[in-house]
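job 3f2a | input accepted
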Amino acid sequence: MAGPSIFLARLLGPLALAVGIGGLLNREAIRGIASSLSREPGLILILGALDLAIGLAIVQVHNLWVAGWPVLITLIGWLALARGLVRILAPGWLAAHAAPKLLDGGFAGAALLVTAGFGLVLTACGYLS
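job 3f2a | predicted structure (129 res):
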């Protein structure tokens, strides 16, 4: 099943790399987004529907539990699915409790660094494999 793994690595890798680096370079924009999210539970719910759809799509075509980098794609799919469910089921709670954590520079910076790292790994695996 190298085909879907390569395709998804080439799709998700550059996306995660761009989001991670872009977020690190534009920290104030990220703070503004987090601030907006904390006031808009409806937007959290809509983003949850997108997360759920993306997670379900990835899990449907790539539910591989193998030793090696393709498992990262499977994990991303399941995490997106779970995040989507949480956003749909508890948007008000997330707005009140989780969104303000994004305003914390250390937490946001670490999350963006991890995102960029995943993106770099997937991009390398997708294009160098």
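job 3f2a | The chain has a mean pLDDT of 91.
job 3f2a | closed
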